[in-house]
Lipoprotein (Lysobacter antibioticus), 139 residues
Amino acid sequence: MRLLQLALMLSCVLALGGCQTTGTQNNKISETQYAYSAAIRWGDFEGAVNLIEPKLRKQLAPTTMQLERYKQIQVSSYRDVGTEMDKEKGTAVRLIDIGVINRHTLAERTVRYTEAWTWDPEVKTWWLVSGLPDFWAGQ
């Protein structure tokens, strides 16, 4: 009887392992957005460029001068204030408030940034289509 119970428990554990949902669009968007926000929070703007949709990457990638400007700031916060996702269209939009500190003046301000994402079913990944945040818009 114990052997039957052990076999039944083992089959239940294995069945639960098969229920893993990694790889779905929902999980992939969360993983990709987490990696992107981590890159921005840690000032890895060149790494964040790798998450831009490959066909748009050359057009949206920051110039050498823009990358130098990114070195003048420190990201102090990165807060999601709203997300919308349309799985049928394969699009997602996320509103972000980013705290930015000027390294020279130590003045802090908040910048509102809108991320736009698109799902690529061929490679099963999400790509950023809105480009990196512009911390100097209007300045």
Observations:
- The beta strands are 73-86, 91-102, 108-120, 125-128.
